[in-house]
Amino acid sequence: MGHSRVIDLAATFLSQQCCPRGQCPIKLRSTLRAPLQPHTHTKELLAHTSLTKMAGTRTVNPDLRKERESSSFDPDKITNFLYGGPEIVKRKRELESLALNDPDYQHEDLNFLSNEQQYETQLKKGILMTKKIQKLNLTDAQDMMIYRSAVGGSDSPSFGLHVSMFLPTLYGQATQEQKDKWLKLAENYVIIGTYAQTEMGHGTFLRGLETTATYDPQTQEFVINTPTITAYKWWPGQLGKTSNYCVLMAQLYIHGKSYGPHPFMVQIRSLQDHKPLPGVIVGDIGPKFGYGPVDNGFLAFHNVRIPRENMLMKYSKVEPDGTYVKPPSTKLAYGTMVLIRANIVMNSGRALAKAVTIATRYSCVRRQSEMKPGQPEPQVLDYVTQQYKLFPYLAAAYAFWLTGQTMMSVYMTFSSQISKGDISVLPELHALSAGLKALTSWVANMGMEECRLACGGHGYSHASGLPRHYANQTPGATYEGENTVMMLQTARYLMKSYNQSLQGEKLAGSVAYLSSVQPVPAASRTRNMLDLGALCDAFRHRAARLVHEAAMQLRNERQAGKDQPDAWNATSVDLVKAAMAHSQYFVVKNFAERLTDSRLDSSISAVLTRLCQLHALHGLVTNSGDFLEDGYLTGTDVRQARRHINTLMAKLRPDAVALVDAFDFPDGILNSILGRYDGNVYQHLLEWAKASPLNKTDVHQSYHKYLKPFLEANRAKL
Amino acid sequence: MGHSRVIDLAATFLSQQCCPRGQCPIKLRSTLRAPLQPHTHTKELLAHTSLTKMAGTRTVNPDLRKERESSSFDPDKITNFLYGGPEIVKRKRELESLALNDPDYQHEDLNFLSNEQQYETQLKKGILMTKKIQKLNLTDAQDMMIYRSAVGGSDSPSFGLHVSMFLPTLYGQATQEQKDKWLKLAENYVIIGTYAQTEMGHGTFLRGLETTATYDPQTQEFVINTPTITAYKWWPGQLGKTSNYCVLMAQLYIHGKSYGPHPFMVQIRSLQDHKPLPGVIVGDIGPKFGYGPVDNGFLAFHNVRIPRENMLMKYSKVEPDGTYVKPPSTKLAYGTMVLIRANIVMNSGRALAKAVTIATRYSCVRRQSEMKPGQPEPQVLDYVTQQYKLFPYLAAAYAFWLTGQTMMSVYMTFSSQISKGDISVLPELHALSAGLKALTSWVANMGMEECRLACGGHGYSHASGLPRHYANQTPGATYEGENTVMMLQTARYLMKSYNQSLQGEKLAGSVAYLSSVQPVPAASRTRNMLDLGALCDAFRHRAARLVHEAAMQLRNERQAGKDQPDAWNATSVDLVKAAMAHSQYFVVKNFAERLTDSRLDSSISAVLTRLCQLHALHGLVTNSGDFLEDGYLTGTDVRQARRHINTLMAKLRPDAVALVDAFDFPDGILNSILGRYDGNVYQHLLEWAKASPLNKTDVHQSYHKYLKPFLEANRAKL
């Protein structure tokens, strides 16, 4: 899919692995700890502008102002915690201001435009952005990512696949000669490329790809073909109308023998007139949910010949005579996958945080119904049911944000080891990232829709920003590994680890706990259900039990006569459940651990602890059966947990707006009238509506064409 | 909101209540049992065309053909069960064929068009449809509803609010003189109206409306005003550009005293040139999630004067001197609400059934991954995880379909009693319909998205039909009563009933079970978790316990010193949970009861029983904590339930396609390439994409405008 936003972030880090010899033009920096050096070329950057300062010049809705005045902490402190320090936050705000205040990027609301107009608008803006990035001399990957995202607003930045997949694949998989030939052209946008892997009939299962690249030793060329309709490349972003090159994944055939999927550099459109080259069929796949401005494309080949040198040969090679040279390891690609999935975790947290920001602010502006006779309509956020919709997702957004950072941090710790070819840590990281990608993208999906529904009627309007954010985020459940498939990958690792532990091996890393299954405590034991240690124990016990039970079920199915694949399939619902519990345990534990950071300002640790407690308790009561089934928790514990949730929500209520402000999304990125920082919702809703296409004239042209003759004929008949 | 589809169905029934003296031009017929009389004017109707016969002339995808050949029953038998008999099904198919095969209604896929073009296309089609309905002499309400829905396809039929709200309000709330004045004009589309109630700042809480109608006894006029921006009418369908009249809900003021919201007949656009009348501000509210072709509108007034006779005065009256005459009862409106909500239950079932049909068929066509090394890629539906995504929602669609029928049937049973003013049964019906509306629309929302995600990448394409079906269905969670508010209404009735039962009153109807709370059985007791009686008992026990616990919690909050509103708010999460459990119990019990129908063909009762078992067991395991918390079920019971689900899914697998075929949705209503009856997905996906707007030229015009200069400048720089 057109997952350019997701992979955009990934590109920041991919580059390190791709260019170990320091040749990568994109400089790497960890998001986590490294302080940003002041740029020497920032004279064009605007002054540091925090949300508060920006709003200072405007009239803020009084309800929202009161919320901010009564919060228990300074949101900037949490912003610094979330982004890694005040210097990083300052730089982020500078770059965002630069993008969002640039009059050159202003255009009509994309929601008012047809898909075709949206494509054209974003293309124009993308070209402008590419030029400005050069002019501003933004070379730091993190800087570019922030700037590009801000220009993109609710949508993916243009040339997303070029930046995030095409270039990195060249860096990572091309030989030096190939780099010399193409990199300069690609980096300078003389050629624009995408990454064409998924086919109409083949997604998850790479080995099922049908596109063929058959080596012809006579001419030393590969002949590319699309043998069936299901072999059409389908979905790559920016493929339909924009790219003139692509990296194509195709089945390699030499002397009639198949060698599996390999990457090839293929020109698809003329550099003179942009027409598809002979034998190339290329186009847009049509409108879809989200990604309105992106030309996701299809691509087919009929006997298209490319030189032997166009196979990307850093790892596998084909000699002129057709001799195939195997790659040193097939598992290196795992590192990239881990990174991309860690980024999806981050992005799921961010996307959920955006939706929660919008719904929380609006719930303080919106007044509705009558709680007490004769009194004014209360703010919607004062209804406990509304808190119960939003606060657990507020907590989840924080939890996922911190999980994404940890995943990234773990990856960075091991990345030099991985890039040297020591991949011992990869299976663990791979399994962990798969489950967390699935968990966080699923929950973000559900939570964003819950936030939209919590905004009542106006949540359906594109003015709320929520439908667009949702439609652009939901593909995270499918791309880069369909979520159920992801959970089953995690489960496979859990089963393997569990069996190793049965055989006496000591497990390490995220599965270490499987070595020591806790006994079920006596039912009479009383627990403090607010204690984070006790909550982590409960999640650990649940995960360990569900892993154990899935393993037993798998064994039962085998003993009942099923072969391994059938037994696995028959157990798969339990396996997904176990992998989910494992992933949830990791998230809860990670959140609790991050709170022990000694650098944490004491004024914010109390409120963050409440969020962590709420996250754990809400996960516990919504899955209470898992904890009750073997008697680990009692009914009394669960009832206690429910009461604690109510108490926590009441305590979080006055800090809710400050907690979403701390995510530090400028209005230009939220793109939501309901979620405006200044809370001036209603007048802007009206202005927005008045500017929409049907209102260009008081009487729509269709009246003259259709309605008038109809009405007049009806009148004449009476 | 533009909920015309929902209310369209309701209009069928509303008419009975509106026109007790047989003056209603729309004839009523129950959907449930009454056989259809053959029409005398059917020569223009096409011959009965079942799905099977239609597909007979086409090549059906071999996988799908095999599915159908191996099912255990004839899907037509279930179709007859679902729709109420073979005659009704025959008539339905005739009308659908008539609409779907009419070349006059053909147009470009709405997904290819801008909102403005969609509006224009549907307006044109709506005018045509209105003429054809006259020409075909379709006067039966059920016939019209079927025909109009088929013409609408995935979207609401045009003039939805006119037919479903404007006309019925005139029938129901106008005096005879008012009817004489306006009905003929409205029925013949000389005036086109909508129903303007919701305001920008006011939805759920009717008394909060701000629009004023101030009586001026001097001129015997009402002066209409929009005193604030939040008083703008907002959302009414067909208001923005189409309607020239509306029924306006406004606060009545006489001699400075407020009498609450009342309905007024207000002209808003000129009948000569369609321009807004002086003092009227009207327009479209802009693009939104779903309802692309509908001109949901805003409306404001500045000193607009209407004659006293324009207040709809069947119930309340204002005399010329300003004397206010109260209505006989304010509860009569409850009847209409029950009916509309019963229809939302029906429609939730239907919408979910559409999504399940699409995903199930596609899951048999789609082959993916490798289950066993060397073997062909299996049909996706053979993965147990895929079954676990779809089959519970297949079962829920059946359950909700039958619930909707029962609600309607109960309403019909009591409707003559209600229309005579005996409203004793209304509180019970009202509470039941509120909870069921919320439950079914929530589950349909979740289920439709689950179905979309179960279709992998192609689920995101508008070619799948799923994004559009979802966006058009999801407002059901908000309109006609926001779901959480609905659940709390049900909870209020449950609390009242529970307290009555504590005081020794014997309860009747859907809450009778609250009188007799079952004891928790001994833990050692073993259960057959497939027994429908035992499953109903479990759901009943859970509902009764949660009602009891919510009542205890409410009492505790009061005893802790909170006043009633604060105590209610503090308990509201538990109250929603209790109302949900009550509603789920009703659905499960109703499904089980419908299976005892002696007319049920034995060949289909086995498969329907499996669906009912699956529905109950899935509800049980996903809420297992509720059953375990007080020890009603044991961990062993829940584990047994999970195993039964696996077994039931394996048994349902060969019947899955037949079970969705039985819903009898023609392709023209599914509007889904993935869900085509013939399963020829891939070639049509390609054809559809090729026809999409960006592919009108091989090289898009934006290349010349933006991309070419960019590429050439970059090349020149190298």
From TrEMBL, chains A, B:
GO cellular component labels: peroxisome
Catalytic reaction annotation: glutaryl-CoA + O2 = (2E)-glutaconyl-CoA + H2O2; octanoyl-CoA + O2 = (2E)-octenoyl-CoA + H2O2; dodecanoyl-CoA + O2 = (2E)-dodecenoyl-CoA + H2O2; (5Z,8Z,11Z,14Z,17Z)-eicosapentaenoyl-CoA + O2 = (2E,5Z,8Z,11Z,14Z,17Z)-eicosahexaenoyl-CoA + H2O2
Keywords associated with the record: FAD, Fatty acid metabolism, Flavoprotein, Lipid metabolism, Oxidoreductase, Peroxisome, Phosphoprotein
A Pfam family assignment: ACOX_C_alpha1
Domain Acyl-coenzyme A oxidase N-terminal: residue ranges: 74-192
Essential cofactor(s): FAD
Residue span(s) of domain Acyl-CoA oxidase C-terminal: 533-711
Gene3D superfamilies from the UniProt entry: Acyl-CoA dehydrogenase/oxidase, N-terminal domain, Butyryl-CoA Dehydrogenase, subunit A, domain 2, Butyryl-CoA Dehydrogenase, subunit A, domain 3
Compartments in which it is found: Peroxisome
Pathway the protein acts in: Lipid metabolism; peroxisomal fatty acid beta-oxidation
UniProt binding sites for FAD: 198, 237
Protein name listed in UniProt: Acyl-coenzyme A oxidase
Organism per entry: Branchiostoma floridae (Florida lancelet)
Upper lineage: Eukaryota, Metazoa, Chordata, Cephalochordata, Leptocardii
Gene: LOC118404017
